[in-house]
Every structure is written in C-alpha cells, then in structure tokens.
C-alpha cells in the first residue's frame, strides 16, 4: 500500500500540467534555448573542479597528469548557496557532477496537513542569475492519503532569489578575505 502511494506521488510530481510545471518545454527544445546554455560551461576558473583534474587538457599534460579524466563540476558559490538555502529541508540526494540537489518531503512546524519537496538544478560553472533553477512540489493530506497540490510560481522564484543572494554573499566573503 505504501509503495503504491509512493509511486502515485512520483507520477503526480511528473505531471505534464502547465499549472504544475515551473519551466516551459520550449526552453529545452528550441534552438535559442540551446544557444543560451551553450556558453555557460566555459571559462577557466569559474567553477569547482572535482578530483583535482584540470579542465584544460594541455595544462594537465604539462603538469604530468593523465589527460583521460573529465573535470566535471558546477559553480562553487551557487552549489554552496543552494545547499545553504535548502538546508531547512532534509536532503535526499546531492549530485555535484550533474548539479542536482533533491530534498525529501518537509512539513513546516504547525502544518502537519501539507508537505513540500524541492529539486534544485545548478546549471553551469559560471555565477550567473540564470545559473540555478528550483522546482517546488507540494502535497496536502486528504484523509490518509497525500495528494498533489498547486505551488505558487513565486515560491520557486523566491527560493532562486535567495540562492543567488547567498551566492553573492559567499563570493564577496571569499574575495574580501
């Protein structure tokens, strides 16, 4: 029974309804959308490099490092700011390679009949205003079952604004020291 409810909640969260989605489909399928994303993963020192590999294969070869590794990562300020901003919710998973942070369900104190879940996408190595996207999901309790409910689009936008403000704060602290 619990498994069936989990599957139903998962399928409900994947709904294709315009009222549930925060992002339009044409943003990912149009040529202009691809052009906007193409320039984000450029720059030598604009993100986190994992496992000490260099993004520049000639620099890695000059340093005597193997050139077969890929230096995947996301912007350190956006990543840390996203984790800080969503820290009030329990963390389900965090993937620094793909830039995805998924929280578990969270019920605010005093509101046991509703719960929230968030998924954040850090979308590149540069600190840009469009470098983070947050999707928020909400469910309300009806009897013994949780059913999907609408989320105000301003909720996700407010979380994104808080992430960006925190990222700017982290960057200014880092450059000031």
Automatic annotation (TrEMBL):
InterPro entries tied to this protein: DUF3576
Pfam families: DUF3576
The protein, known as: DUF3576 domain-containing protein
Organism: Neoroseomonas lacus
